[in-house]
Amino acid sequence: MIGIFLTNVRSTGPEARSYSSLVFPRYYPVFRTFFLSDLGHIFVRTYEKTGDERFVYDIFDAEGRFIGRMPLRSSGVTILNGKYYAIEEDADGFQYLKRYAVTWNVK
């Protein structure tokens, strides 16, 4: 994938960059990002994806205990009053806030 990107970049002109000086880290963080719900749950976005391009989130309670995993859209902002809010984009590239219902199935 990096090779495809590098071959599509113009190599002349004032905006040319020296890609030979790029440094890729040997290790990455264990998570990408996280957000909190109004109930105190911590949603930690992992690098794992589902077949429909959603990211898997590890969910922890307010005391830090693991309570489950859930695939969500990557643009999630928060969960408030039982609703999941995510930033979506329409066909013209305009962003808008979309609200999804959240139900907890506790076993």
Structure report:
This protein has 107 residues and is mainly beta. The protein is 6% helix and 41% strand. The chain has one helix at residues 2-7, and strands at 33-36, 42-49, 55-60, 66-72, 76-80, 83-89, 95-101. The strands form two sheets. It has a four-stranded antiparallel sheet, with no helix packed on it. A three-stranded antiparallel sheet has the order 5-6-7, with no helix packed on it. A hairpin with a 5-residue loop joins strand 6 and strand 7. It is globular. The N and C termini lie far apart (41 Å). Residues 1-10 have low confidence and may be disordered.
Task: Note the topology.
Elements (H helix, E strand, L loop, with lengths): L1 H6 L25 E4 L5 E8 L5 E6 L5 E7 L3 E5 L2 E7 L5 E7 L6
Antiparallel strand pairs: 1-2, 2-3, 3-4, 5-6, 6-7
Average pLDDT, all residues: 78
Q: Report the C-alpha radius of gyration, rounded.
A: 19 Å
How would the global form be characterised?
globular
- Helix count equals 1
N-to-C SSE string, H for helix and E for strand: HEEEEEEE
Structural class: mainly beta
The helical percent reads under 10%
Strand share of the residues? 35-45%
First-last Cα distance: 41 Å
By DSSP, the count of extended strands is 7
Please outline the major beta sheet: 4 strands, antiparallel
Parts with pLDDT < 50 across at least 5 consecutive residues:
1-10
Strand line-up of the largest beta sheet:
1-2-3-4
